[in-house]
Each structure stands twice: as C-alpha cells, then as structure tokens.
Amino acid sequence: MSRAARPEAGTGKRTTEDYTIMRNRLSLIFAILPAWALLGCDPPPITDNGVIGIFGGVGLGNGEFSYPRAITAEPDGAVFVVDKSGRIQRFSARGEFETGWKMPQTQTGKPVGIAVHPDGRLFVADTHYHRVMIYDRDGRLLGQFGEQGNGDGQVQLPTDVDFDSEGFIYVSEYQGNDRLTQWAPDLTFVRAIGEEPIDGQRLRRPAAIDVDGDDVIWVADACNHRIVRFDTQGRVVGTFGEMGDGPGQLRYPYDINVAPDGASVMVCEYGGNRLQWFDRSGRSLRTWGGHGREPGRLWTPWGAAYGPGGNVYVVDSLNSRIQIVRP
Predict the structure, then answer these.
(1) Which class does domain 16-325 fall in?
(2) Residue 276 near residue 313, CB atoms below 8 Å
(3) Fewer CB within 10 Å, N side or C side of the chain?
(4) Which helix (H) or strand (E) segment is 102 a member of?
(5) DSSP track, 167-204
(6) The whole model's pTM is what?
(7) For the segment 127-181, what is each residue's pLDDT rounded down to a tens digit?
(8) Residue 93 C-alpha from the chain's centroid
(9) Domain-by-domain residue ranges, the chain?
(10) Could you give the CA distance from residue 90 to residue 79 in angstroms, rounded to a whole number?
C-alpha cells in the first residue's frame, strides 16, 4: 500500500518508560511459559481474550524484531517471521528462537509475505525485488522465480504466496498489476487472475491469499476493504466486506487464513487493529483485539497464522511482538 493509502498507525511516540514496561511484561511471560512447556500442554491464558504467550521485543538480536510483518507456520512444527530488517527468523511453537537469516538484497525494500509449502520449502514474496525466493527451513536458498513487469511470467511488488492441492502456486501483486498470478509446480507461468473489475472495482493491493482444502482462493483485497474468492481457473466465486469498524466490516485486511477445519475464515485487519472471523458465506462470527499495547491488544497487525495445536500467531507489528492466541 502506498504511504497515502495507508491508515494512520496510531498517535503518540514510545518513551523509554514504555519500552521498560513492555520488556518487564515480556520477562514475566517468558518466566511463566517454560514450566508449562515441560508439562507438554498450553499454559493458561494470560488475558481474558485467550492470549497464552507472547514473544519478541524491539531490536535486531536473535528473537527480537524490527517491525515484524509476515508470518507462517509448519502444521506441527516451527513458526517463521519476517521483519522490516529483511530477516527471517524461525521459532519453536512456544516462541523460542531457533535460527535466522537475512534476505540477499534489502536496500530497495523488504519482504511482506511468506508461506510454507506442503513439502516443507519456504516461499518468500521478496516484494521490492519483484520475485519469489525459495528456501529450506534452515535458510538455504533453493531457487527463485519472477521478474519485474506486467507480462506473462513477470510480477510487480508481490505480497503473498500460497499453493493448491495440485501443487500450483499463487502469487498476489500490487501497485500497477493488482492481481494474482498462477504458476505450475515446475515454476512456469500459467495465467493471471483478477485483472478485470469485480463488482465494479478492480483489486487494489491484494495483500494476502489463502487456498483452502477445496481449492478456493481467498484474497484479502486490502484497499477495497473486502474479501474476494476465486476458483483455480480464475473465476470469481464471491465477495464480502466493506469499509468500517462494525461486525462484518473491514479496515485494511492484510492477512487471511481459513481455519484448519475449513469452517471459518480469519481476517487480520491492519487498520482495524483486530482479527475477525467469518463463516464461509461472509457472516461475521466474532472479533478479537482492539488498539493498544497491553497483551491481548494490537497495534497495526500485519498478519496472523494458524500454527501448531491450532493456536493463532498474530504479528503485532508496532508492538514488535508475536502474540499466541488460543482461538
């Protein structure tokens, strides 16, 4: 999203006292978590809205973040986070740092999308270099595809990646292209999706995509404040959402994930500072979060993902942390 299109992140600046309070809270949480980890179960909620853990903090060290903004998780394993320093860090399900690496180029900009392939490879939308990078879980580069442009086999500022049951790859793009592209398992270009107006509006910054078990492609159409669904041939299946703060309304949806059981859809609202769950028809089921710094509140969240045990990992960007929520 351009600077002009982006909603205000909040008011006020952090003070030294704010950072001290945050670090003290995190230290208390980290002190509690290991005992429960030894028991092999989730800890009790820290907040009345289901937070069971928090990890991160401001910094460039291992386990710290400089404005985290994308997350993905292995179904029964690790959690990967990319931040604005161009680093990818891998954590255990409990938030313990395991390893990390930097993108090969970062001067122009940093990635905003990341996804684990069913075979374990990590696909990174290297946004400002107009390509998708492929790594193994330890950070070894395995390949890449895409180049800048709007033609076949080209991409413009890719934002996210996902995969269907046949192994086809989908990439969302913005700023000029504002579309999806479909790629074969061998990384060859197949087709562009979503280039025509939908209900009178072209896609505007499709910020995230998720392909469910029925191969429906769910798209967070961020600057149109709506969700759009496609089939794998590029046909529109449906839409829902409008700008606003009420139930069923959206404010800059930046991430989307279908629940593991397929029954509901979780949307992360960057401008709304919340998560919102919908049924598959687009009916709002509930919301979670709200603006703030304390555990259980959010400040411009860029993403959320279902992870090990069905827990939700939320990228609380301007609070430089990940919150683990029992949904």
Answers:
(1) mainly beta
(2) no
(3) C
(4) strand 97-102
(5) --EEEEE-TT--EEEEE-TTS-EEEEE--S-BTTB---
(6) 0.88
(7) 999 999 999 999 999 999 999 999 999 999 999 999 999 999 999 999 989 999 9
(8) 16
(9) 16-325
(10) 6
